[in-house]
Write a structure and sequence with these properties.
This protein has about 375 residues and is α/β, with parallel strands linked by helices. It folds into two domains: about 140 residues, Aspartate Aminotransferase, domain 1 (Alpha-Beta Complex), CATH 3.90.1150.10; about 220 residues, Type I PLP-dependent aspartate aminotransferase-like (Major domain) (Aspartate Aminotransferase, domain 2, 3-Layer(aba) Sandwich). Helices cover about 40% and strands about 15% of the residues. It contains 13 helices and 13 strands. A seven-stranded mixed beta sheet has the order 2-8-7-6-5-3-4. A four-stranded antiparallel beta sheet has the order 9-10-13-12, with helices on one face. Strands 1-11 form a two-stranded parallel sheet. Helix 6 links the parallel strand 3 and strand 4. The longest helix has 23 residues. The protein is globular, with a radius of gyration of 21 Å. The termini are far apart.
Length: about 375
């Protein structure tokens, strides 16, 4: 007997989603991590206080509130939705997984607007679905006609990330509204970065029964290590998602910490404004550097293009890694030739990045 013969074909065909790290080879204190859109501008002391307060109020010998009910109660109250319109999971990634479980089977089609977050494709293929690519326009805007033209009777889901990772731009509401009106399936709008942008469409779930909005506590709240993502949608979609959730899928510490964090929203708002200010400052600094061109951003990261002749984004990323600054090469993605994504950090991190970038361009 071969184990491979027992494994589902969809799993055999998958590759692990790799997160490149050099932290094992070098001291973490020496590394400037600006490659995964984590929020290191959030003061460590604040997060530690939240965690300590959460741990003091729970008994980890007991199972956590089932299906994330404590977190659901806190989130729904904060947003002004009913608890039956919210579902939570271990990161927005798991919400994507749950949506695929509910809607995708072998032969189903999932339209993914690209370039974008690769996990949409990963989960679609895991459940036997076919990923259908709809490219952004050269200016990174949605090509609504192209998306709708790819829809057929087997199409189940459409994934749109807004603000989009890695391009950084938030899509026009008029375009998303048209998709909701004309797309014959569920439109999943990933708003993981929306707190850094000017607005949200989350209230639209009350108007469009085919809208599912994803959110995360990893970016604006700086709680990536706790793994809490959530879904806001109509009661029907949430009910089906809850049916495929394990009974104790989100741990007690995470749920309690989230509840406490939402009570301190005004503080987190200040930190978000700091990141936005740093983002705009960093864009202006990048504009002064010969050999790169930054794009506007509505997120906590910036995409920029390496324009210096005979120099690739991969080479620049490697040179910066040698200087202990980690950024993300996006040059292999469609319409993003020679592009790099950098996470906005503290002023000190941003200045270190700029120095390493200038040196890498001239090396």
């Amino acid at each position: 007997m071969k184990i491979e013969d027992l494994v589902q074909k969809e799993v055999r065909d998958l590759s692990c989603y790799e997160v490149k790290t050099i932290l094992e080879q070098k001291s973490q204190e020496k590394i400037v991590k600006m490659n995964l859109n984590e929020n290191f501008a959030m003061p460590t002391e604040t997060i530690q206080e939240l965690l300590l307060d959460a741990c003091r109020s729970i008994d980890v010998r007991a199972y956590p509130p089932p299906r994330g009910s404590l977190a659901i109660k806190a989130i729904s109250s904060f947003l002004g939705f009913s608890e039956c319109e919210v579902s939570v999971a271990n990161g927005a990634d798991e919400i994507m997984d749950l949506l695929m479980k509910v809607f995708v089977r072998k032969g189903s089609k999932v339209i993914v607007v690209e370039p974008s977050f690769p996990m949409y494709t990963f989960f679609a293929q895991l459940y036997g679905g076919t990923k259908v690519t709809a490219l952004l326009k050269p200016d990174f805007s949605l090509d609504v006609d192209a998306i709708l033209n790819k829809m057929d009777k087997d199409t189940r889901l459409l994934f749109v990330c807004s603000p989009n990772n890695p391009t950084g731009n938030q899509f026009r509401e008029a375009n998303i509204k048209r998709l909701l009106q004309e797309f014959k399936g569920v439109v999943v709008v990933d708003e993981a970065y929306v707190d850094f942008a000017s607005g949200s469409i989350i209230e639209w779930v009350r108007k469009y029964d085919n809208l599912a909005v994803l959110r995360s506590f990893s970016k604006s709240f700086g709680l990536a290590g706790l793994r809490l993502g959530y879904l806001v949608s109509n009661e029907s979609i949430v009910n089906y998602v809850q049916r495929v959730v394990g009974p104790f899928n989100v741990n007690s510490v995470t749920q309690q910490t989230i509840a406490l964090a939402l009570q301190k929203w005004s503080y987190f708002e200040q930190q978000i404004r700091y990141v936005v200010d740093e983002r705009e400052w960093l864009i202006q600094e990048l504009k002064q550097i010969d050999g790169v061109t930054p794009y506007p951003s509505d997120a906590n990261f910036i995409l920029f293009k390496v324009t210096k002749p005979n120099l690739t984004s991969a080479t620049v990323v490697e040179r910066m890694e040698n200087r202990n600054v980690l950024v993300k090469d996006r040059g292999h993605l469609p319409i993003l030739e020679n592009c790099i994504r950098v996470t906005v950090g503290t002023r000190n991190m941003n200045e270190t990045f700029l120095s390493a970038l200038k040196e890498s361009l001239e090396e």
